[in-house]
Amino acid sequence: MTNNDTLRLALLAAASSLLVACGGGDAAEEEAETPEVAEETAAAETEPAEPDSIPAPEGSLAAGPMIIGAEDAPLTIIEYASVTCPGCRLFHQRVYPTVKEQFIDTGKVRFEYRELPTSPQRLAVAGFIVARCAATEGGPEAYMGVVDALYQRQNDWVRGPNPAQEFNNIAAQVGLSGKAFEDCFKREDIREAIAESVEEAGEDGATGTPSFFIDGRTFSMPSDPEAAAEALQAEVDKRS
Fold first, then answer.
1. Any idea what DSSP says for residue 81?
2. pLDDT confidence of 136, banded at 50, 70, 90?
3. Considering all CA atoms of the chain, what is the largest pairwise distance in Å, rounded to the nearest integer?
4. What is the rounded CA–CA span in Å between residue 153 and residue 83?
5. Signal sequence span per UniProt (predicted)?
6. If you count Cβ atoms within 10 Å of the first and of the last residue's Cβ in the chain, which end, N or C, has fewer?
7. Number of domains in the chain
8. Whole-angstrom Cα distance, residue 226 to residue 76?
């Protein structure tokens, strides 16, 4: 079995089991900031039956790159992150608002968010499925809105007693409930998009989350908003 096959196996397991089992032991696992090894996931579980799949609605934006900012921005930043990663949550709560206000919204930076699910991986994948499902019509802005909500309530759905209910609550805020919510986990285009993001992480050399890249090279994003703004402005100035 190839790495790509085992990755898709893990995603299939998440998609097929979340609705009935995401309140189980995964939420009690120790949080980590390094990716789960796909082979370990596959070895620990019996191969699941492939879940029902449904096609993407016509015109869906859910499987595309999750990029916000002007296309002609002089600087493009790629972040590999996980919605279960505490460090990612801190970046998006403390630093990202400054980056968005001063650089993305002003046309200086084009920002791309890529998924790299970390422990508990099943919950991370589920969160990303909900975020991409919200992007079906709303695109990257809707996706980032769900990601933001997942970070804000991370402790509730990662450590809480009922992750499924928390996902339902977050999804309902963007109009996903009932059958629409359940259908998110049957979307082959969404599962494939997440798998491709993880594959890209391996190709780019992202070994943990959050990881930032500029021009194909790792970028050390400061954890202080002012320091991050200074570092990013220096990168913008190089391209002026």
1. E
2. very high
3. 54
4. 10
5. 1-27
6. C
7. 1
8. 19
Distance of CA 100 to CAs 22, 42, 111, 169, 228, Å? Answer: 33, 38, 9, 26, 12
Beta-bridged to residue 211, according to DSSP, are: 80
> Which element (helix H / strand E) includes 51?
none
Q: Exposed, middle or buried by CB within 10 Å (0-12, 13-18, 19+), for 144?
A: buried
Instruction: Name the percent of the chain lying above pLDDT 90.
Output: 77
Banded model confidence at residue 28, pLDDT cuts 50, 70, 90: very low
CA distance 122 to 10: 8
CATH number at residue 194: 3.40.30.10
Single-letter code of the amino acid located at 114: R
Q: Which among 113, 88, 97 has a CA at the least distance from the CA of 225?
A: 97
52 pLDDT tier (thresholds 50, 70, 90): confident
Angle at alpha carbon of residue 150, lines to 144 and 156, rounded to 5°: 170
- Among 9-13, 87-91, 202-206, 207-211, name the one with the lowest average pLDDT: 9-13
Q: What is the DSSP letter of 25?
A: G
Amino acid identity of residue 79, one-letter, is E
**What does the alpha-carbon distance between residue 195 and residue 72 come to, in Å, rounded to a whole number?**
28
Distance of CA 108 to the CA centre of its chain: 23
Domain of 227 in residue numbering reads as: 3-238
Q: Which residues of 181-201 are buried (b: 16+ CB within 10 A; e: fewer)?
A: beebbbbbbbbebbbbbbebb
| Tokens 């709560």 found at | 93
